[in-house]
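S1.2 Input.
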Amino acid sequence: LQTIPNAEAVGLSGGAPPLGFLRDLTEPMQAEDGRSVNGVMGCVFPGALASWGARQVAGRDIEWSDGPSAVVTESLARRLYPGQSPLGRSVLREAPGLRELEIVGVVGNMAYNGPRLGPRDVVFVSCLERTKPWPSNFGVNIFIRTSRSLADVGQDVRTVLDRLAVHYIYVMDDQEEYVAWSMERERMLAT
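S1.3 Output.
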């Protein structure tokens, strides 16, 4: 997919894009000193954050070769490690099922879980770390940042996926359509 002409960034995610949720998914996280802060845990594959246009503030993105690692938002980094660099430090999800994660990067704040909830403190972990092994029946979202039209780039995506023997593309949306859909859901909740 990275070889598709004019693809500026390509990423995958095991869940909906940042504006896709209507409910608050906040849960307790822990810093190395045992202090508890609330945050949202998101599952991404390498490249997803860049394809969403997330600003890389420090460190790097999650890589395919990483062990248990995480990228956190600026606000969560400040809450976990005030006045210190979070890079190389750990964050631990208090809920069972995930081990200690090394913070390898920091991205700008974002309205994760939809605009109604505003900017969120988020820990992004590799989907492969969160769900081992990755089940063959799980869907994967593909994100491509490009200046080309959806119809145009969609043909190239279909060609690549056909070559990889992927059998089903559920839906293709461009960012403007997706944001409009998300805002429509928010307006419905407000009435």
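S1.4 Remarks. The chain has a mean pLDDT of 79.
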